[in-house]
Amino acid sequence: MPAVTATAAAIFAIFMIPVPLLVDGRERNGRTARLVPAPARPASSNTSIFFHDGARYGFPHGMVVHGAMAMRMATPVLGPKHGESFDLGSLGARYLLTGAASGGRVSVLEHWVPPRTLAAPLHRHSREDEYSFVLSGRMGAQLGDRTLEAGPGDFVFKPRGEWHTFWNPGEEECRLLELISPAGFEEMFREIAGDPEAMAGEAAEALDAKYGLEVSYESIARFCSEHRLEFPA
């Protein structure tokens, strides 16, 4: 199994997403999601996705999540150009799996970060762990006192309580899957998109407190200077 798809399988196993397994065309109950090879698809298509209640399940490279959640949907496949998404300037966010769909256990988003851009100020979470799976491009990250760079197929752990941030150090867009466990923090992106002023002054402090974040806004200038980055206002 290719490294990328093996990692995808491990991700679903970690979070124990309960969907039945489809074996030889027959549905069999199981408590852990299984990833199985997708049927042959045109050469121009490299993504197979299943949806449930507006949440997106699946990974690229010909892997599909089969199960009752997918099968209950009238339209079980949604292409890569569809789905709720927001462009926040320093990063984009597309909702793949929400806490409402996973029972609050995990949320999954697709992020994209423009070239040579800092995605967020240095911050830490008090309620959730985050995991980044790099799909394309390069991801730079500060994790505690460690500075690292990750590429396609790398899986980056960002545990709660640890100061961290990430950026795109390259000249091409960086795309990644972001897993948040437990879910809830993903709703902050909706709030920011709905009110850009929410990230300024007292409004920003109130939003940070609402989601259990500590944020070092003064770190923006330092990271931009050290890594030759921009941070869109």
Task: Describe it.
The protein has helices spanning 3-15, 68-71, 99-102, 187-194, 201-210, 219-227; strands at residues 21-23, 26-28, 35-37, 47-52, 55-60, 63-65, 85-87, 92-97, 107-113, 117-118, 122-125, 129-136, 139-143, 146-150, 155-158, 164-168, 174-181, 213-216. The protein is an alpha+beta fold and 233 residues long. It has two domains: 3-71, no CATH class; 85-227, Jelly Rolls, CATH 2.60.120.10. The strands form six sheets. Strands 7-8-9-17-12-15 form a six-stranded antiparallel sheet. The protein has a four-stranded antiparallel sheet with strand order 10-16-13-14, covered by helices on one side. The longest helix is centred in the N-terminal third of the chain and has 13 residues, at 3-15. The radius of gyration is 18 Å and the shape is globular. The N and C termini lie far apart (42 Å). The model is unreliable at 16-75 (pLDDT under 50).
